[in-house]
Amino acid sequence: NAGVTQTPKFRVLKTGQSMTLLCAQDMNHEYMYWYRQDPGMGLRLIHYSVGEGTTAKGEVPDGYNVSRLKKQNFLLGLESAAPSQTSVYFCASRRIGQGGETQYFGPGTRLLVL
Amino acid sequence: DAKTTQPPSMDCAEGRAANLPCNHSTISGNEYVYWYRQIHSQGPQYIIHGLKNNETNEMASLIITEDRKSSTLILPHATLRDTAVYYCIVRGDRGSTLGRLYFGRGTQLTVWP
């Protein structure tokens, strides 16, 4: 049981380049999330998904797109990277049970846009 | 925005108990209190959660006041590896199923030798 994995771990892009961040979970969770974290700040929600084939915007969705073609994978795309997208990106999946819930986070992807 | 208040930083000697407070005066009756932590450069890690009763697991204990307006996370024997930012979170979606977690600034716990 690998939990939540993210690839790549680190990437450097030039302004205007595109890339896709991959998140995978092996816990059969319906809900998945993409957050970004900037220095000295908490996590901000970019996009989320409540199940295969569904996605929705979070609080900072501009400049990003997502897809959830398979239940276990949640992709985050940057079509035209900007320096403001330099950040650490965390993916999470959510387990809902009786008596609360738990979110499991991946190790993060560090993105530098020059 | 987060609906909790935590001290920005705390220190603790290794081997001693670390008691991290959190105020959540606007919590509603069906909302849980969650604790996560983030060790430097890593993804957040779930610690514990509770509704009304005190809870304990292999990582920590959670003490919730009777009026539910505040709670304390207790790490009974802190180690250097417990140095991290600790987040107290009240589930941010009243009545919805989104489950979005609002991470505020948290408390930077530093455990010293």
Q: Nutshell version of this structure?
A:
The complex is a heterodimer of chains A (114) and B (113). With 114 residues, chain A is an all-beta fold.
Fraction of residues in β-strands of chain B: 35-45%
- How many β strands of chain A by DSSP? 11
Shape of chain B: globular
> What's the average pLDDT of chain A?
93
Largest interface: A-B, 24 and 25 residues
* Rg over CA atoms of chain A: 14 Å
N-to-C series of helices and strands of chain B = EEEEEEEEE
Major sheet summary line of chain A: 7 strands, mixed
Structural class of chain A: mainly beta
What does this molecule look like?
The complex is a heterodimer of chains A (114) and B (113). Chain A is an all-beta fold. Chain A has strands at 4-7, 10-13, 19-25, 31-37, 43-51, 54-57, 65-67, 73-78, 87-97, 100-105, 109-113. In chain A, the strands form 2 sheets. In chain A, strands 2, 4, 5, 6, 9, 10 and 11 form a 7-stranded mixed sheet that branches. A 4-stranded antiparallel sheet of chain A has the order 1-3-8-7, with no helix packed on it. Chain A is globular, with a radius of gyration of 14 Å. Chain B is mainly β. In chain B, the strands form 2 sheets. A 5-stranded mixed sheet of chain B has the order 1-9-8-3-4, with no helix packed on it. In chain B, strands 2-7-6-5 form a 4-stranded antiparallel sheet, with no helix packed on it. The chains are: A mainly beta (114), B mainly beta (113). Chain A binds chain B through residues 4, 31, 33, 35, 42-43, 45, 48, 50, 58, 90, 92, 94, 96, 99-108, and chain B through 2, 32, 34, 36, 41-46, 49-51, 87, 91, 97-106.
